[in-house]
Amino acid sequence: MKNQRHQQHHEAVDGLLNLFSRANHDLTLVQHRLEKEFQQIYPHNANPMILVSRIKKLQEDLCTLKEQCQELLAAKQKMEEIVYGNIMGHYKACSDLIDKASATLVGNRSLLQRSQASMGIPHASDSDDSAYANFKLIIDEWTNQVRSGTGDETHESESEDINKMLFSAIVQSN
């Protein structure tokens, strides 16, 4: 009984294998006929089957390009964040330096004027004090440069935020 089942199993498998072989042979014949027919109907390599395979390849390439573009965009955004962080660091350092220099110079001038007043020495007016006049001139020139760099030609009040203009100039130049 085992032999009979085993033999039936082989016969069934053999029949299935023969069926697959005939189907494969038939499909190959159909493929060749279609290729011949397409070559006759569509001259100049306009075979629809080839075009379809090319379209599928292009679709795959587009998916790859899309992924690469997304990776590139993510890298660009990360780089922009790094550059922005660096700009902000330089802006902060420059702003702090200018603020400290200005505060120190104005404080020293005020201290000098008080010392002169306590000793009875007349102190120079703003226009007569060449160091202070030069300091104000430098700050004014710097402010004008920042204005021209940011495109802000309006002359607002003396208390306008020079640090904001500096930041705008730095960001615009990068």
Q: How are the SSEs ordered, and which strands pair?
A:
Blueprint: H1 2-41, H2 48-118, H3 130-150, H4 162-173
Number of helices: 4
What are the secondary-structure elements, in order, as H or E?
Answer: HHHH
- What characterizes the major β-sheet? none
Would you tell me the structural class of the helices and strands?
Answer: mainly alpha
**End-to-end gap:** 89 Å
The mean pLDDT is: 76
Strand content: under 5%
DSSP strand count? 0
Helicity level, as a percent range?
A: over 70%
Report Rg: 42 Å
> Which stretches of 5+ consecutive residues score pLDDT under 50?
155-160
Query: How does the overall form come out from the CA principal axes?
Result: rod-shaped
Describe the structure.
The chain has 174 residues and is mainly α. It is 83% helix and 0% strand. It is built from four helices and no strands. It has helices spanning 2-41, 48-118, 130-150, 162-173. Helix 2 runs antiparallel to helix 4 (162-173) and helix 3 (130-150) packs across helix 4. The protein is rod-shaped, with a radius of gyration of 42 Å. It starts with a helix and ends with a helix.
Short structural description:
With 174 residues, this protein is mainly α.
Give short descriptive properties of this protein.
mainly alpha, 0% strand
